[in-house]
Every structure is written in C-alpha cells, then in structure tokens.
Amino acid sequence: MNDVTSIMIFIYFIYGLVFFTLGISALMHINRKHKAFPLVNSIQYLGLFGLLHGIVEWLIMFSFTTLFSNRFVFFRELIWILNGLSFIFLLFFALKLMNHYVFKTDLRVLFIYTSVVSLGIYISTFFIGDRNMMIRYLIGFPSAFMTGVALTLTTRDRYYSKMKWMRYQLNIMAAAFVLYGLTQLMDQSVFLSLFGMRLEVSRALLAIIITLLFVSVIRLFKLENDKRLNYLIARQNVGKERKRLAREMHDVILQDLFSVGIQIENLQDDYSSDTELSQKLSESKFQLNKVMERIRDFLNTSSFEKNDVDDLYVRLQTMLMNFKTPDGMAIKLSQNNDQINYGFISTNKLNQLYYVIRESVINANKHSQGTLIQVTIDSTINGLSMTVFDDGKGFDTSKPDALQGMGLKSMLERINMISGEINIRSDVNGTRISIIVPWEV
Questions:
Q1: Which of 9, 191, 360, 400 is a Cys-bridge partner for 388, taking CB atoms 3.0 to 4.6 Å apart?
Q2: 3-234 — its CATH code?
Q3: What phi and psi, each to the nearest 5 degrees, are found at residue 76?
C-alpha cells in the first residue's frame, strides 16, 4: 500500500465519519415535542442521508484495499445504489421542508413522484454509460441544491426573526450544501488543476462545515425553543389558574354575596320600622352591589382577556353537533393534541374565527353537494391554523364575482380585521379554505 492510497483511505474515513456523525446527530434529535417546527419535522430524512452517505464513503475507502477485490463489481454496484438512495433521502428532506413554505400540498404525491423519477434515472444509467456520473449529475446535484434553497427559506420564517445567529448559521449551511452539490458536477482532474487539491478533500471539508453547523443550529434551536416553550407553558398554567379562580369567584363567591344581599333585604323588611337601621342596611346593600359589580367587571375584562384555543374547539364542537345536514353528509372536527399552543390569541379574534368557520361550514353544507365536511384546528409555530374542507363539486375561484357571494366576502373581511391570512382553493374535487392567525406573543 503506497502513500497516496493511505492518504485516500484516511480522507474517505474522515469523509464517511463526518456524514455518519451528521446522520446519527439528526436521528437523535427527532422529537415529537418539536414536530410543529418544519426543520425538526423533516430531520429524519437528513439523518438517513447522513448515515447512508457515510456508509458509501466507507465502502469507497475499502475499495482502495484488497479486502473486496474478488467482489469488486458487486460492491461498486452497491456503492452506486446506496449513493443514489442517500441523495433521494436528502431530496425528501428538502421537499418536506419546502412543502411547508412553497408547495403546501400532499407530501405523499411529492415523494411518490420523486421516487419514480429517481428510479427512472437510475434505470436509464444502464443505457447511458457512466452510471456514477449520471447519479451525481441527475440526483446528487439537484438534491444538494434544493436542500440549500430549503434551508434559505427556513431562515425567512417569522419564528427565527429574532434568532440572528441561527439564521446566519443556516445561511452558511445552505451555501455549503449548494457548493457540495456543485462538487458533484466537477471532474476530478479539472478540479485538481484549478484548485490544487483533490475533489474528495473539498467534499470532506464541506461535510465537516455542514455537520458542525447542523449540530450548532440544533443546539441553539433546542435552547431557544425550550426557553420559549417553558415560558408559554408557564403562561398557560397561569391562565388556567386564573380561569379556575374566576370560576370560583363566579360560582361560589358571587353566589355567597348574592345570598348575603338577600339576607340584607330580608332584614330590611323585618326592621322597616327602624329608620336608622334600615338606612344602614340600604347602604350595606349598595356597597355589596358595588363589590359584586367590580367582581363581574374583573371577570369580564381581566380573567378571560386571553382565551384558550380549546375553548374555540368546544364551541365549534357544540355548534357542529347541533348542525343539520342533508342525508349522506358527515361533518368531522379534529384538533392536533400532540403539541402545546405556541402563543395566545385574544377572545375577540377567536370569536371572529368561530364565525368564519361557521360561515364556511354553512356554505359547504348548502352548496357543495358533497358527503364530507372536515374542520381541522392545528397549532403551528407562527399561529393558529384552521382548515375547512369539503369533497363537493367546488366552484370556479377565477371568476370576478366568485368571492363576493355566499358569505365569502364577509369571511375575508373578518380575517383581514384580525390580521390573519386566508386561502381558498376549489376544483371539481372539493373546496379547501385554509386560515392562519398569528399568535399575539
């Protein structure tokens, strides 16, 4: 074994180790508590990319030895397959991340389409020629480039607006992935003549940068997110305690004070002949009424200033249970119960949301001619998301007056009034109304 071979073995060992570390680190940070965050929710695919890519580099490392010389063709084919598969997982990571910001469609369709195209590319390499080159060109480069784009989109998320250091690292990580994709297009000899180093060295350096930045970003994310979640949990607990105290004041204290008021009135009747005592009792009753009025004002203005999303769910559930639908029409309501709410929304905004959802359900019930109305409430990092879907005949949203009738104009005005966003999509397969209202903290 000569010096060049030893150096190449060392480079590929480090190269594979770095990506393997990236994969293990990504898979270790899969956390259901943070699944509302697009970056963390997509992380399993980045982990699989890292693991497989690390294994590929180690297999290439072994190809420099004589360990598998008698099975060279088999291991070469295995390397190509695993390399292509690793890039497909990287593409899945990018697509799932971009879907949150751009596509906003059914991920299964994207994944199936991507898998079919990737399989077609791999099969075509049997007829084109250099299979390794075609995998790098047609799968490797697009995957890395789209990952860079997806990470750049992530930095524009409102949730990260105050995390400048994290956004800075994500941008560098995005650039590193794009450069890594470009190295998949480069020829070894041309790169060596231009930069004076082997292509594998540059890829290994980029892999180190990507892994270090990823570990740092995840660490910062966990620190910032846990701090915010702990703050929100504490506020929600305080809110629940205030509601409990408010119910106690309403159901117990106010009732007791009301009973005292009745007793004072009875005493006034019993001692009506005693003018002085009757006057004092009247003053006491007046002061008691003022205290009760202050308590009611407190309950109306303070204790319920910030409402709970669960209250909205209960109101919608009650409304839908009493909703009359045609035969064959079903209405379903679902709420994402796996995560806490990442902020608060005022009672006024929740009331407006309630009326918008009610109007949406009324429209679907009257005009869709479908069999299902599905209402969904979901807590996202940026706000409260709600969707009303029906599987009816739909309508043409491109017509100038399409959104002027059927209460749609009123819905748009209500959502605009509470600084929300509404998107209406309709075709022959049904209508989907998507709403998001930003948190107030």
A1: 360
A2: 1.20.1070
A3: -65, -45
Rounded distance between C-alpha atoms, residue 163 and residue 430, angstroms: 40
CATH among 3.20.20.70, 3.40.309.10, 3.30.565.10, 3.10.20.310 for 307-438? 3.30.565.10
**Residue 128: strand pairing partners:** none
Distance CA 215, CA 169 (A): 10
Residue 339 φ/ψ, nearest 5 degrees: -145, 160
Any idea which of 8-17, 63-72, 278-287 has the lowest mean pLDDT?
Answer: 63-72
pLDDT tens-digit series, residues 311-352: 788 888 888 877 777 766 788 888 875 555 666 788 788 888
Cα-only R_g, the chain: 31
Domain ranges in the chain are 3-234, 237-305, 307-438
Write down the pLDDT at residue 182: 92
SS3 67: coil
pTM over 0.85: no
Beta bridge partners of 66: none
- Residues 158-178, mean pLDDT to the nearest whole number: 85
Q: What angle do CA 286, 290, 293 make, to 5 degrees?
A: 135
HSE (side-chain half, CA atoms, 13 Å) at 319: 17
> Which ranges in 322-441 belong to alpha helices (H)?
347-367, 408-417
Please state the length of the chain: 441
Instruction: Determine the pLDDT at residue 342.
Output: 66
